[in-house]
Amino acid sequence: MTDLLTPQLNIETAVPDWLQARRLTGRAAWDNGSMPTRKTEDWKYTSLYPLQQDFTAAPVSDASAAELGLDLPELSGSRLVFVNGHWREDLSTLVADAAIEVVRFSEANAEQSALIGEHLGTTVPGTKHLFAMLNDAALSDGVFLRVRANSKAQHPVQLVWHNSRAESTFISNQRLLVLAETHSEASLVEHFSGRNNAFTNGVSELVLGPGAKLNHSRLHLESPEALHIGGLHVRLDRDATLESFHLALGGKLKRIDIVINHEGTGAHCQLDGIYLLRGNEHIDYHTCIEHAVPHCTTDETFRGIIGDKARAVFNGRIHIHPDAQKTHAQLSNKNLLTSATAEVNTKPELEIYADDVQCAHGATIAQLDDAMLHYLRTRGIPEDEALVLLSYGFINALVETQALDALRDYLKPLLADYFGATSESASEQGSNLTRHIGA
Fold it and tell me: 3-state class of 124 per DSSP?
């Protein structure tokens, strides 16, 4: 496939037999695949040129939490921390919860290994997502989260994937499998962070059984130099409900694929996302919602703010299969350009093969309203703070939808800082603005 990535697969690392078999299969698929190019439709606006460099295997880091700069919301539940793809027990906290079973792949017992082997990879559609095959090929550890049937988790579970500074650019592998059994309920937060140009290749799989409910948040807060190609793959059974929220800061290359499969009648998906870019950053969100059965619903909303010379890509597809009658689905993508050199390529798609459905989609690209900016300035708000207020207002509705109070409280000051409304740099009016947005 590529001489730069293949040597770092490390398939010689000792792993259980059931994991070794998947790794060998992934290696074969990767070797026989073709690297996407700008002529590949799904990669038309995203170049993989930043991957054309020498990568090393991910080094083990013994850096402390303070050195890593881990700034995380207090969610009162279990927190599992991986640094450079390696488990850090000293930074992790496991909270006992009868409803949830959390185990690493490398430490799974026979029963757990059987469950992982039964479900791992079942949501990823063959070789369509080539970098998922690369993830398989490098698989040596991961997290299996099982929510037991007819139970509700007492606390959210947080997974932290952090890349620390190293002498060379390295590849960090991330893998998560969630099995939410019948009529179970839980909350999960994935947190990606890092201060260097490591390449994260990640896959998260969510399998929701009949009547299961999962509140899922995925925060991509890596540095502007970050390289990240990741995928979220979901299977929804009868009457299952997924509430999934995504927040991403831009990087040198960031591509996230989200694939959600409605496979049981009555399933519902609420998918919300925010992406923020500046400088020369690039981010690409590709979402695909597959409605294969009747009486399912999808509500998808993504909003982006793109400044400077940054470039964003959004491709949202809702596919209604012939048997998916009585489907209700809507897709909205709104973008705000804050400079004349910022760019966004947005493409909402509806592919409908059923005749009794209610579906809608739309996309907008706009600049800040000069009249509204003028109004705020006439009320004594400086221009830079007015810009912050208007920008934050564009995404505020999606932040407020978060069910976890601690997560909302964490995001508001983080976003205030991103938009420049920090207490160190703000005037008295700026401090009032910070309080206004709840920071």
Answer: coil
pTM, entire model: 0.92
pLDDT per residue as tens digits for the range 282-315: 999 999 999 999 999 999 999 999 999 999 999 9
Strands 100-104, 143-147: pairing is: antiparallel
Q: Are strands 297-306 and 328-337 parallel, antiparallel or unpaired?
A: parallel
> Which tens digits make up the pLDDT trace of 205-219?
999 999 999 999 999
Using CA atoms, how far apart are residues 314 and 68, in angstroms rounded to an integer?
31
SS3 string, 163-201, reads ECCCCCCEEEEEEEEEEECCCCEEEEEEEEEECCCCEEE
How far is CA 194 from its chain centroid?
Answer: 15
Q: Transcribe 71-117 into DSSP letters.
A: -----SS-EEEEETTEE-GGG-B----TTEEEEEGGG--HHHHHHHH
For 239-271, write each residue's pLDDT tens digit: 999 999 999 999 999 999 999 999 999 999 999
* Residue 121 burial (CB count, 10 A): 20
Beta strand pairing call for 170-180 and 143-147: parallel
**Do 390 and 368 touch, CB atoms closer than 8 A?**
yes
List CB contacts of 144: < 8 A, sequence separation 6 or more: 101, 102, 103, 104, 105, 108, 112, 115, 116, 177, 179
Structure confidence at residue 433 (pLDDT): 46
Domain residue limits, the chain: 6-264, 371-439
Residue 438 confidence (pLDDT): 52
Query: Distance (Å, rounded) from C-alpha 322 to C-alpha 356?
Result: 10
Judged against a pLDDT cut of 80, whether residue 10 lies above it is answered with no
Distance CA 335, CA 252 (A): 20
* Whole-angstrom distance, CA of residue 439 vs CA of residue 434: 5
Alpha helices in 401-427 (DSSP H): 405-418
For residue 417, how many C-alpha atoms fall within 13 Å in the half-sphere facing its CB? 8
Q: How far apart are CA 426 and CA 429, in angstroms?
A: 7
Residue with token string 């703010």: 305
Give the helix/strand (H/E) hosting 243: strand 241-249
Q: Which two tokens stand for residue 78?
A: 């279990």
Distance of alpha carbon 296 from alpha carbon 248, whole angstroms: 28
Q: Please, what is the angle between helix 428-436 and helix 383-400, to 10°?
A: 10
Q: Quick one: pLDDT band at residue 144, thresholds 50, 70, 90?
A: very high
Task: Answer whether 204's CB lies under 8 Å from 190's CB.
Answer: yes
Tell me the two tokens of residue 106.
């490398």
